[in-house]
């Protein structure tokens, strides 16, 4: 079944009816574009101009839906009109068909029609003037230009402005979309950053609380229970303080809490001291110099999370923490005793390693973590290299 033709636009129907009414009115009043003595008039019957008038009016509903077909049919109707007494409205409606063919037609038609009508305008003026040896022949070219080239050029100009406006609108929408994507990415990045900070600031204290509370519940020893409760209280107080400082960071300055100071590598000694208080045997070898603030924060958090993981998963033995600067990078290493199959002393979310890897990647560094075979089960090692070209040293 052939596809149905698109319905003509309402305004095109109005143009067709208005043109037909105006042409019939001029015909009824006896107003024609030529006189019977004109040599072009081959069909002098008074009713003859009505045929091309009706044909041109019938083409108007096609000016948007089938512009090329409307123009071809209109051209035939105009040709017929030239051998009759003629009607001005037929010519006017034809100029509208020419304009619409360029404005609403295909891009190829829009490019070709102005060139074709321009060539016809030039030839229509020069050829008659050369053949008749009379400058009056140029008026034919002027007539062709007014009827064909002028509306085609106007349609071309209007189409270019319309396309430029459409391009600008699409570009504005694309810019708005990119801005929204940037905003969404910024929000996602900020949420990820805050998630890493929350995990690194609180997970260590909560892990210590979980481990010591388990010891207090499982061992029937008052001294052990008192020691465990002391550690639990200490970590609870410190964790609460960390949470309050984090809330201070999230606030917009309207609250009473001051934002937490950015951790530095000078605080590693206190971090190791806290790990030892939680039961870890930690050896710190600190050989770092002055490093940029972003690198310092990332290194501190990587060591902090590694000690938290060691508290939850490491077997009995020494945990070694090393920092050194070499080849333009700060190298961090944390290794702890590891025995495959041991159950963790506290549950974990698995986001710690992901957070450390993200911190290293954001600075263009490298990160790896995994078991290293050795006697007695080997060791679990965390290694990171953070480039130092992140701004001025802190």
Question: What report would you give on this structure?
Answer:
With 394 residues, this protein is an alpha+beta fold. It folds into two domains: 10-173, no CATH class; 264-394, 2-Layer Sandwich (Heat Shock Protein 90), CATH 3.30.565. It contains ten helices and five strands; from the N terminus they run ααααααααβαββαββ. It has helices at 10-28, 50-59, 67-82, 88-104, 107-132, 138-218, 222-250, 268-277, 293-313, 351-362, and strands at residues 281-287, 318-326, 329-337, 366-372, 379-387. Strands 1-2-3-5-4 form a five-stranded mixed β-sheet, with helices on one face. Helix 2 (50-59) packs parallel to helix 4 and helix 4 packs parallel to helix 6. The longest helix has 81 residues, at 138-218. It is rod-shaped, with a radius of gyration of 44 Å. The relative contact order is 0.06.
In short:
This protein has 394 residues and is an alpha+beta fold. It has helices spanning 10-28, 50-59, 67-82, 88-104, 107-132, 138-218, 222-250, 268-277, 293-313, 351-362; strands at residues 281-287, 318-326, 329-337, 366-372, 379-387. The chain is built from ten helices and five strands, in the order ααααααααβαββαββ.
Layout of secondary structure:
Elements: H1 10-28, H2 50-59, H3 67-82, H4 88-104, H5 107-132, H6 138-218, H7 222-250, H8 268-277, E1 281-287, H9 293-313, E2 318-326, E3 329-337, H10 351-362, E4 366-372, E5 379-387
Parallel strand pairs: 1-2
Antiparallel strand pairs: 2-3, 3-5, 4-5
Helix pairs in contact: 1-2, 1-4, 2-3, 2-4, 3-4, 4-5, 4-6, 5-6, 6-7, 6-9, 8-9, 9-10
């Amino acid at each position: 079944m052939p596809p149905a033709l698109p319905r003509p636009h309402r305004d095109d129907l109005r143009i067709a009816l208005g043109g037909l009414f105006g042409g019939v009115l001029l015909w009824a009043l006896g107003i024609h574009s030529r006189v019977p003595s004109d040599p072009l008039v081959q069909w002098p019957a008074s009713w003859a101009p009505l045929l091309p008038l009706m044909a041109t009016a019938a083409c108007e509903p096609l000016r948007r839906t089938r512009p090329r077909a409307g123009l071809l049919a209109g051209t035939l109707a105009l040709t017929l009109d030239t051998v009759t007494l003629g009607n001005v409205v037929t010519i006017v409606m034809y100029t509208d068909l020419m304009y619409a063919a360029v404005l609403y037609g295909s891009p190829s038609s829009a490019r070709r029609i102005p060139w074709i009508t321009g060539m016809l305008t030039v030839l229509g003026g020069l050829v008659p003037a050369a053949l008749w040896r009379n400058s009056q022949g140029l008026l034919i070219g002027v007539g062709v230009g007014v009827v064909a080239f002028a509306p085609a050029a106007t349609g071309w100009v209007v189409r270019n402005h319309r396309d430029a406006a459409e391009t600008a609108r699409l570009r504005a929408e694309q810019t708005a979309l990119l801005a929204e994507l940037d905003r969404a990415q910024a929000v996602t990045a900020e949420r990820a950053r805050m998630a890493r900070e929350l995990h690194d600031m609180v997970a260590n204290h909560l892990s210590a609380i979980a481990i010591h509370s388990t010891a207090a519940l499982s061992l029937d020893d008052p001294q052990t229970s008192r020691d465990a409760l002391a550690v639990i209280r200490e970590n609870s107080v410190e964790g609460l303080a960390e949470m309050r400082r984090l809330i201070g960071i999230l606030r917009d300055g309207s609250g009473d809490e001051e934002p937490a100071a950015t951790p530095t590598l000078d605080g590693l000694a206190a971090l190791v001291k806290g790990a030892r208080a939680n039961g870890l045997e930690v050896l710190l070898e600190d050989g770092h110099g002055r490093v940029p603030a972003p690198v310092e924060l990332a290194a501190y958090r990587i060591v902090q999370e590694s000690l938290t993981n060691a508290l939850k998963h490491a077997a009995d033995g020494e945990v070694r923490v090393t920092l050194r600067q070499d080849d333009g990078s700060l190298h961090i290493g944390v290794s702890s005793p590891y025995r495959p199959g041991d159950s963790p002393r506290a549950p974990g979310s698995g986001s710690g390693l992901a957070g450390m890897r993200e911190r290293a990647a954001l600075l263009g560094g490298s990160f790896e973590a995994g078991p290293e075979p050795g006697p007695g089960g080997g060791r679990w090692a965390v290694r990171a290299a953070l480039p130092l070209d992140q701004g001025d040293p802190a």
